[in-house]
Amino acid sequence: MRWSSLSVTALGALLGGLAGGGLVVGLTLVLKAGIDLASAQGTWFALTVPPLGLLVAVLALHGYGTEAAPPSEPAPARSFRAFPADGARADISADVVDSAGREERFPWRLAPLRAVAVLATVGLGGAMGTEAPAAYFGVAAGACLGDRGRRWRRLLRPAALAGGAAGVAALMGIALVGTAFMLELGQRRRAPLSADRVLAALVGGVIGWGIDTSLGLSLIRLVVPREPPGTFGQAALTALFIGAASGAVSAAAGAAVYRAKKWRASPALRLALGAAATVAIALVLARIATPSAAVGPGGGAILWAESVDARPWPALAVCLLRAAATTAAVAAGGCGGVFVPFLAVGDLAGRVFAPGLGVGHDLAGAAGAAGGIAAGYRLPFTAVAMALGVGGPAQATLTCLATVGIAAAVPGAARALRRRRPIR
Fold it and tell me: Is the distance from CB of 421 to CB of 257 less than 8 angstroms?
C-alpha cells in the first residue's frame, strides 16, 4: 500500500513538475526580457517606468480585484478576482506558505490577475525578484492540474508542491535549491517532512533543473567563486566578517520588508509614498553608481560593482539603497519576490570587505549572497544548497557554507540582545 502511495505521489509530481516548470520558464523569460530592457535604459527610465509598473500592479490587484465574501459562501472561492479580506493581495509568497501541506486550498484561480501584477512590477524594472513568482506560479500550475475532479484529487498535493520546486529549480538552475526552497517554506506552516512531500519536492527539483539544462537557459546570474582563500585564517575571517555583515544588513532588510507587507494603510497612500521613495532612491543610485543599479532585482548593481571594482564605501551605500528600494517597492504594493534582491544585498555587503580581507570579489560576493538568503529570507538550508550548487574551488565552497552558518545566527542573536533588560 505504501509503494502504491509513493507511485501516485511520483506521478503527480511528474505531471506537476512539467506543468509548473514549463509555465514558470515562459513567464520568467518574459520578465527577464523586461529586466534586460530596463537595465539598458538611462536615468529617465529608472525614474518613471518602475513607478508606473507599481501603479499598474496596484490597479490590477485593488482596482479590478475585489474582496471575497465570507467563507460560508463557497462561490467566491472559484472567483478569478476575489481576494480574502484579511490577506495582502500582493503577497504571493504568503499563499505558498499558507497552503503548505494542504495545497488543495491554494487559490490558483487568482494566478492570472497576480501574473498581470508581477509583469507590471518586475517586468517593468521594479526592485523585486522572480523567485516568489516562480514558486507561486509553479504551485498554481500543479494545483490547477490536480483540481480536475475526484479522480485527480490524489495528485493535487504532489503536483502543486513539485510544480513550485520545478519553477524555482528552473529559475536557479540548481535542482536542490528548488527542493529545499519549497520544503523549507513549508516548515513555516509546520508542514510535515513526510516521504511523499520530500519525494514530490525532489522530483520537481530534478524536472526544473532538467528543463533549465536541456534548454540551455540562464534565467538568473549567480556569482561563482573562482579564487579560494589563501589560508585557513583568511577563510575564517572571511566567513566571520562577511557572514556578520551580510546577515545584519539582510536581516534588517527582511524586517523592513515584513513590516512593509503588513502595513495597513490604504492602497493609494501606500502607492504614493512607496513610489515617491522609489523615485528618490533611483535618483541617488543613478548618481553614485549607474542607472541600471536602480532597476530590477539587483543584477545591475552587482554588474556595476564588478565592472568598477567598487570600493567599500560606495559598495555599502549601494547595498543599503538596494535594500531600501525593495522595501519601497513592497510598501507601494508591488508584486514579486525578495529572495533575488536579498542575493544582491548580501553580495554587495560581502564585497565591502573584499579589499580589507584580501580575498577576491567573486568569493566575497558569493559568500555574501548565501549569507543574505540565510539571514534575510530565513532559508539557511536553501542557502546551503545554493552554495553547493554554484560550484567553484572546494575551499571557497566551505567558506561560503561557514558564512551561511554565521549569517543564519545573526537574527537570533539580534533578538536575544533586544530581549536583554538593562541592569538597574
Answer: no
Residue 221 lies in a domain: no
Residues 292 and 393 in one domain: yes
210 lies in the same domain as 244:
no
Q: What is the DSSP letter of 333?
A: T
Whether 97 and 206 share a structural domain: yes
Strand 82-83, strand 66-67: pairing:
parallel
Q: Both 282 and 350 in a single domain?
A: yes
Please tell me whether residue 67 adopts helix, strand or coil conformation.
Answer: strand
Distances in whole angstroms, Cα of residue 94 to Cα of each of 19, 89, 145, 261, 410: 21, 9, 21, 10, 24
Q: How many domains does the chain have?
A: 2
Residue 222 lies in a domain: no
Question: What's the mean pLDDT when you consider all of the chain?
Answer: 91
Which of the 8 DSSP states describes residue 129? B
Flag whether 126 is in a domain.
Answer: yes
**Taking the alpha carbons of 404, 302, 321, 87 in that order, is the dihedral positive or negative?**
negative
Whether residue 74 sits in one domain with residue 133? yes
Task: Tell the residue number behind the cell numbers 536557479, with chain if given.
Answer: 172
190-245 pLDDT per residue, tens: 898 899 999 999 999 999 999 999 999 889 989 999 989 989 999 999 999 999 99
| Closest among 396, 408, 407 to 224, alpha carbons compared | 396
Are 202 and 335 members of one domain? no
Is residue 252 domain-shared with residue 333, that is, in the same domain? yes
The C-alpha cell of 405 is what?
A: 552558518
Cell of 231: 589560508
pLDDT tens digits along 282-293? 999 999 999 999
Q: Which residue from 254, 256, 236, 234 is spatially nearest to 246, judged by alpha carbons?
A: 254
CB of 160 within 8 A of CB of 9? Answer: no
Helix intervals (H) in 40-151: 43-58, 92-98, 111-121, 131-146
Answer for the pair 279, 55: CB distance below 8 angstroms, yes or no: no
Q: What 3-state DSSP class applies to 421?
A: coil
Q: Are residues 197 and 249 in the same domain?
A: no
* Alpha-carbon dihedral angle through residues 388, 394, 396, 397, given to the nearest 10 degrees: 20
- Of 158, 188, 215, at which residue does a domain stop? 215
Domain of residue 304, residue span: 232-419
CA dihedral 195, 198, 203, 208 (to 10 degrees): 170
